[in-house]
Design goal:
Elements lengths: L1 H23 L5 E13 L11 H11 L3 E4 L8 E4 L1 H4 L6 E10 L20 E9 L7
Parallel strand pairs: 3-5
Antiparallel strand pairs: 1-2, 1-4, 2-3, 4-5
Length: 140
Amino acid sequence: MTKRILTMTVVFLIISLMGGGLGVFGATETTYTSKWFGFITDTKDINKGRNITPDAIRKSVAEQGAKYALVNDLFSGRYIELAPPEKAAPFAGQQVFVQGSITTMSLTKSGDGTPNAVSGGGHFTIQISSITPHVQDGIY
């Protein structure tokens, strides 16, 4: 398991560095397809961490205009929004692997120029192709 997480982290960093370097030279948008891991919460309650119930997450999305978000410690204080919401809803409040794609100029810069929750740094949305639950193991 540790080997898998290390491999995914290295792949993410390589893709991030490639995207960041290409952005300097005026590259066009690119779609990155990968598997991300983390905890599904919502954008209004992002600072509550795992101290939130699945029902509270779904309520924030339904009634307060929040969006489902994937967080983990490797995102350096940022989150990634998840779409479409109906694919994320059944996994609210769970630790998961999300397979999907992000379209952006660079994974190390802003996806569309708008800040995202915890500490800014860019807005990204994963277009979900699949979600797999993962045992809560404290790694992320």
